[in-house]
Amino acid sequence: MPRYALLIEYDGRPFAGWQRQADQPSVQGAIEAALARLEPGVPSIAAAGRTDAGVHATGQVAQCDMSRDWDPFRLSEALNYHLKPAPVAIVAAARVAEDWHARFSALERQYVFRLIARRAPLTHDAGKAWHVKNRLDLQAMREGAAHLLGRHDFTTFRATICQAASPVKTLDEITIEELPCAHGQEFRVFLRARSVLHNQVRSIVGTLERVGAGSWVPADVKHALEARDRAACGPVCPPDGLYLSHVVYPSPVFRDA
Fold first, then answer.
1. DSSP SS3 for 35
2. Catalytic site includes residue 125
3. Domains of the chain, with CATH numbers?
């Protein structure tokens, strides 16, 4: 069966996450329903990473196996037609080798977290960024984040229901930028890793927000990491601002996207 890679973006707010569920809407379920309109009996699809309820994506990647030999552009167009009105779009499709796998062939996942600090509620960015009311210290957050770079036991920043075999992960990058903002402050947190633990990104950002707010000092992040204790973590932030932004493979998959 021909295998195709799909480059996907979605608004995570209406969904209970990526993974298909029997009684709740999911991104996987929406795409598989669209695929079934093209070919009955299409096998279950697999994604580069399972995002939680409310988490967004601008660069999710999934694979699907089709019976017909589809032109990739026509496949993406047909899927987008059948996905309407769900807030899910197939940005690009590409034919890949039969042994290529959206999850296991990936070398790196990249995430972006948007955070807006201002007193007034969010209007245009509601549900698309984490809203906090107090101003944040960018330099303090950067100093705290530096303690998390590299290979560590991230038990502190791991959900208690995480099913990963090991809490040891390597965080290759964590960069925080402040963007021009007409009202308040807008921050972007960029993270790169081969893989992450369940709730790891949201746990890290929630902890760094406490540093930026002055409730923690940067060294407290180091102490929390070394504690290897979930109770030492700062609050887990909401999913609103989290985006799976890019997945890296040994060779480019979507050359024109």
1. helix
2. no
3. 3-105 (3.30.70.580), 108-245 (3.30.70.660)
